[in-house]
Amino acid sequence: xxxxxxxxxxxxxxxxxxxxxxxxxxxxxxxxxxxxxxxxxxxxxxxxxxxxxxxxxxxxxxxxxxxxxxxxxxxxxxxxxxxxxxxxxxxxxxxxxxxxxxxxxxxxxxxxxxxxxxxxxxxxxxxxxxxxxxxxxxxxxxxxxxxxxxxxxxxxxxxxxxxxxxxxxxxxxxxxxxxxxxxxxxxxxxxxxxxxxxxxxxxxxxxxxxxxxxxxxxxxxxxxxxxxxxxxxxxxxxxxxxxxxxxxxxxxxxxxxxxxxxxxxxxxxxxxxxxxxxxxxxxxxxxxxxxxxxxxxxxxxxxxxxxxxxxxxxxxxxxxxxxxxxxxxxxxxxxxxxxxxxxxxxxxxxxxxxxxxxxxxxxxxxxxxxxxxxxxxxxxxxxxxxxxxxxxxxxxxxxxxxxxxxxxxxxxxxxxx
Length: 417
Description:
The protein is α/β, with parallel strands linked by helices. Helix content is about 35%, strand content about 20%. It has an 11-stranded mixed beta sheet.
């Protein structure tokens, strides 16, 4: 007990054997790797900041991840699209896809599993390419699993194909009918709500593993709970809620979109979590990813764990970066396919790591620094190079959500005693 108490940091955050522990002052509760300790009032709290090395996410050569941006085409024109899908019609070539697979899996005996993600645009508009990539992987006798992000405008044949190959699906669906139809109109301006809802029914009927990913804006924050209840009635069991990200079309000067009010968002989010707990629905959010595995890195985008191949042959570390850019996004473009060879610029990767290390100072005194882990790498990177981009909204949101998650875990623990 005293060993734990002596390690408590001034920020109410500690590590013991690299695991997270929190001290919740008002309730005098310690949370240490899934176990809760209530402190009697007679126990004196001694504060000491531990010196413990926190690991970074490492590249696992036996389980690499490749993301194929199959096409820039899209059957929707989402008003906030982070990659401006549909503004060009570029297509990924099968030859380039094979080249990347061969490079990543050149020593097949060391590959335990290849994780393959398809993204776009709307990736299923290039379903023949996806079919050919999977055939090539199977022909090469590589053990692989598959994931795909989609807008939900899918044919029955495509749905059956996804089911037959055990795809895990990330389905974008942003709210009740008025919100969905405004934020995510079809390419010709038509309404998309009924189309996507019918796709959800098919997914549920066929037993496809999927989650719904919803972007929340200020005009939709008050309908979050109603939307979650609607998804529950449709049979959805995993829901990912995120506030608007200001990039791509959302950053255009003509955009009228606004971030949801922080206090309203937090209040509605907690209501959704309460309802989800009653209905056994999983609520997903990026700030929880490192809750039981503290880490320096929010994701593996900058540590070499995954590589993204774009239609024009660029190799990037993040699916949000699909084109060469002047300034803020350029460091995420770490290579390209040139004359049937993959060329990686290691100096860019080193530079990217150095730039992001600046964020460690920004997070230095935050109790959640190894759980939030500095937040999304690309968004942090943009902020560091352009201080006019304010990170305080997402920082305050992450702190509140992590603290709320810890207390919820404690309450759940009490019920099982």
